[in-house]
Every structure is written in C-alpha cells, then in structure tokens.
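lol forgot to send this yesterday, sorry. struct tokens for the thing we talked abt
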C-alpha cells in the first residue's frame, strides 16, 4: 500500500477512536456518575405515583418530588414521566459526547498552532455542542409541564 493511503487510514482510525473515547467518557459521566445538571432521576415508580429526585446545576441531588397525577385514571402519565426521565439521560449522553469531541478536536487544533477563533467556529464542532442543548431544553420543558 502507498504511504498516503496508510496515512489516510491512520487518520480515520484515530478519529473513530477519539469518537469512541468521547462516547465512553460521556457514558461514564451520565450513567455511572449520574451527572445530570438540572435533570431528574426516578427513585421509585408505582402504578399511580412516582418519586423523582432533582439535580442542581452542579449535578448534586437537590430535592425529592412526589408526583401524583391529577386525574384518577392517569397511570399513563406516571409511565410517560418515567420515559421522559430515561430519554433525558440519553440526550445528556449525546450532549456530553459532543462536548468531549469538541474538547478533543480543540486540543488537537491548538497543538497544530491554529488561531483559537478559527478553531472554535470553523470546524463546526462548537455548533454541534449548541445543537445538542436543544433536545435537553425540550425534554426539561415537557417534564416541567407534566409536574
């Protein structure tokens, strides 16, 4: 194989490795360390009630919320709320993986001695982090509306 081809393959494999590493770090942050800023966690769930724990901006457990639907036959609301909280973890996984990718590419480009403003806006990775915030805001709004 030509040396150019080996260089291209190596470059692609390094980027895939960095992507997998950022996904692994995001998984550890969200699922193992339970860092969910302004998020929720289902502590217990019954047919007609649920107990949620809220997190502060810094990821510390803040308070417990005892949720009972307003109507008697609203078991689906409890299930819907627990599904929203589970989806919130998945969306935080997306956000943190984009964040770690941004940090890795930022460090890589700084190592290559490029201007900082060009690094932040030209590659589009900073925009991907901002785009990953949109689903978080939507899910948090749905949860607040339900509570």
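and heres what i got for the seq, position by position
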């Amino acid at each position: 194989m030509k040396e150019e081809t080996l260089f291209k393959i190596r470059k692609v494999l390094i980027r895939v490795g960095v992507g997998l590493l950022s996904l692994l770090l995001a998984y550890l942050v969200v699922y193992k360390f339970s860092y969910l800023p302004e998020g929720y966690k289902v502590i217990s769930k019954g047919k007609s009630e649920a107990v949620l724990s809220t997190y502060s901006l810094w990821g510390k457990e803040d308070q417990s919320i005892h949720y009972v639907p307003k109507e008697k036959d609203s078991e689906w609301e409890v299930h819907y709320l627990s599904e929203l909280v589970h989806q919130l973890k998945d969306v935080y996984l997306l956000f943190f993986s984009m964040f770690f990718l941004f940090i890795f590419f930022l460090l890589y480009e700084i190592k290559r001695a490029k201007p900082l403003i060009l690094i932040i806006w030209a590659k589009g990775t900073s925009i991907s982090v901002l785009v990953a915030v949109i689903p978080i805001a939507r899910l948090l709004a749905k949860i607040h509306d339900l509570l």
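Residues 3-34+76-146 form one domain. anyway ping me if u want another try
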